[in-house]
Amino acid sequence: MAFTLLQSTLFSKPSLFAHKRSFAFCIQLSSFSTVSAFPSDKFQPHKKWRRPVASVLELGGIKIAKTEIVRDDPTNNVPDSIFSKLGMQLHRRDQHPLGILKNAIYDYFDTNYPNKFDKFDDLYPIVSTIANFDDVLVPTDHVSRSYNDTYYVDSKTVLRCHTSAYQAELLRGGHTHFLVTGDVYRRDSIDSTHYPVFHQMEGVRVFTLADWEASGTDATSYAAGDLKKCLEGLACHLFGGVEMRWIDTYFPFTNPSFELEIYFQDDWLEVLGCGVMEQEILKRSGRVDNVAWAFGLGLERLAMVLFDIPDIRLFWSNDERFTSQFSEGQLGIKFKPFSNYSPRYKDMSFWISNSFTENNLCEVIRGIAGDLVEEVKLIDNFTNKKGMTSHCYRIAYRSMERSLTDEEINDLQWRVREQVKTKLHVVLR
């Protein structure tokens, strides 16, 4: 469900369970043709795409022109750097840590629930706001809906924030057991564990009256018990015989709701969010006599622990010193660092405007420095007698693959300062 979306805003970061999405939607992208999320014969575009005029990607048989996603439009906030990540689908690479982890989870479900769970990992990443938010009961005033947090193609269309965006459509399409994996997009801070594109997996299982009647328990208790048994088994499959604990929590799309934590490497690690699906979601999908559970997890979060990967940027590296360390089916191979380049720090102070947000600052810096920026951290702030507020940020630049020169760093910092001043309407100090 949308566990990953809310977890990133209500808890730490990764998973609304991770954000929600829905699919049976046939979304409308202003100048786009009307298309469906599913790249199958059953869910094919109804119209042909117009001839692209710029760079083009192809996802699930659908061609996407850059000019349709990155536009000079007040309702559009998708930068070139994010468009370039569409279609990379790291989770579908069998020798990549994310693909290895995804397949290990598939193995668990195939072994314990043979031929039950349908798997989707190539669904169209552009979805309607209804699918992304409304269908999974995300409140209208929730922060995740803001332009500060979500990438909008237009006012009614977004880059999916979480894999739950397809939940309602799959339920309406008759699916009762399914796993959805995909890259998701969210405006975020800059540090070693956060990146504007990451990967999630959602699982859903629907029960009928006959399932819980024979158990002698009520529907909710039956689903919650089955959910916990399933996910405890998954945790053991991935991490071995670890100590676990369940934490009661809140999600708007499940009730009751839980987080699973494991004791791993001398600390408690949050693994995923989950719960018994709200009946309203099932009702809207035409399943008034059913009960269901759902879970959501962030692949990067778990892969960083399982493979000892210290920086989330490494998942996007094409450096053979990184990619050659991993093999298909080998879960938990420990990453061996291949660089020890020191970070280079630059500070920047400015008087903020009323519209300033840190996410906007990070977007500007990423747009210039890309993956050469390692961290952006607020190190000082104060308000003067005139009511003006000053922020001082420390920017850490570091390549994972080579040493950066003073000339490069100075040029990057100069361009960052100019763009921050122009785009964020701040006054540099």
UniProtKB/TrEMBL annotation:
<keyword id="KW-0648">Protein biosynthesis</keyword>
<dbReference type="GO" id="GO:0000049">
    <property type="term" value="F:tRNA binding"/>
</dbReference>
<keyword id="KW-0547">Nucleotide-binding</keyword>
<dbReference type="Pfam" id="PF01409">
    <property type="entry name" value="tRNA-synt_2d"/>
</dbReference>
<protein>
    <recommendedName>
        <fullName>phenylalanine--tRNA ligase</fullName>
        <ecNumber>6.1.1.20</ecNumber>
    </recommendedName>
</protein>
<dbReference type="InterPro" id="IPR006195">
    <property type="entry name" value="aa-tRNA-synth_II"/>
</dbReference>
<keyword id="KW-0809">Transit peptide</keyword>
<keyword id="KW-0030">Aminoacyl-tRNA synthetase</keyword>
<dbReference type="GO" id="GO:0004826">
    <property type="term" value="F:phenylalanine-tRNA ligase activity"/>
</dbReference>
<feature type="domain" description="Aminoacyl-transfer RNA synthetases class-II family profile">
    <location>
        <begin position="182"/>
        <end position="337"/>
    </location>
</feature>
<dbReference type="GO" id="GO:0005524">
    <property type="term" value="F:ATP binding"/>
</dbReference>
<keyword id="KW-0436">Ligase</keyword>
<dbReference type="InterPro" id="IPR002319">
    <property type="entry name" value="Phenylalanyl-tRNA_Synthase"/>
</dbReference>
<dbReference type="InterPro" id="IPR036690">
    <property type="entry name" value="Fdx_antiC-bd_sf"/>
</dbReference>
<dbReference type="GO" id="GO:0006432">
    <property type="term" value="P:phenylalanyl-tRNA aminoacylation"/>
</dbReference>
<keyword id="KW-0067">ATP-binding</keyword>
<dbReference type="Pfam" id="PF03147">
    <property type="entry name" value="FDX-ACB"/>
</dbReference>
<dbReference type="GO" id="GO:0005759">
    <property type="term" value="C:mitochondrial matrix"/>
</dbReference>
<comment type="function">
    <text>Is responsible for the charging of tRNA(Phe) with phenylalanine in mitochondrial translation.</text>
</comment>
<keyword id="KW-0496">Mitochondrion</keyword>
<dbReference type="InterPro" id="IPR045864">
    <property type="entry name" value="aa-tRNA-synth_II/BPL/LPL"/>
</dbReference>
<dbReference type="InterPro" id="IPR005121">
    <property type="entry name" value="Fdx_antiC-bd"/>
</dbReference>
<feature type="domain" description="FDX-ACB">
    <location>
        <begin position="339"/>
        <end position="429"/>
    </location>
</feature>
<comment type="similarity">
    <text>Belongs to the class-II aminoacyl-tRNA synthetase family.</text>
</comment>
